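Researcher: Next entry in the queue.
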Amino acid sequence: MDGSMSSGQGTVRIEPLAASIPGNGLLAALGFTALSAMPLPLVLVGPRGIAFVNDAGEELLSRKDGLTACSGRYGLATTQPHEAQQLRTVIGSALIGGPGGLAPVTRQHATLPLLIEALPLAEQKLDLFDIGNASGGFALVLIRDPQPVRSATTRDALMVVYGLTEAEACVAVAIASGRNAKQIASKRDVSLATVRSQIRQVLAKTSSQDQREFLHRFTWLSGAA
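Model: Structure for this entry, 225 residues:
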């Protein structure tokens, strides 16, 4: 990226991360490299608007079909007034450490709408990106395009998007495939207590109240729905 993005309102300047996030190191660089390579479009919105867009997100936003980049606090905009308000609400909530949420965005050139999910990044404890002490909140905005996308390892996506450890991500995939805690413990040759602890971490890091809500998020992330 060259630090700017064209939108319906002109060129939107994307603030360089180094200018807004203290202490960026090797792990942070590796984290953003991983995000860039993900096929799931995502946008990092910070105190001054868009701070980062991965390659898939940049490609999607360049189409200007329903969702566009914009200057200002929320970073993203849509042309439908009722959808625009919902989009601002969920991104605004995530920026102040609230629950964030989901918002649909209607497109002119596709039957199915985009589904936008805003997550409070600080609450996800993604220390890998070294932004915990940044001035102001950050929101990780995931953009689900129901149209077919390039395949990706869902386990890796869980690790990057939600900050799961490799073991937690493996347990998450096992849960999604229908295994219960005892079956997972037996398969992974670990104690039942360990698996139950990992399941609690999976639910906490994905902001899921229960396994049913987690399965909804997993299906959304994996592109199975």
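Model: Strands lie at 4-7, 10-13, 42-46, 49-53, 67-69, 76-78, 101-105, 114-120, 139-144.
Researcher: Noted, moving on.
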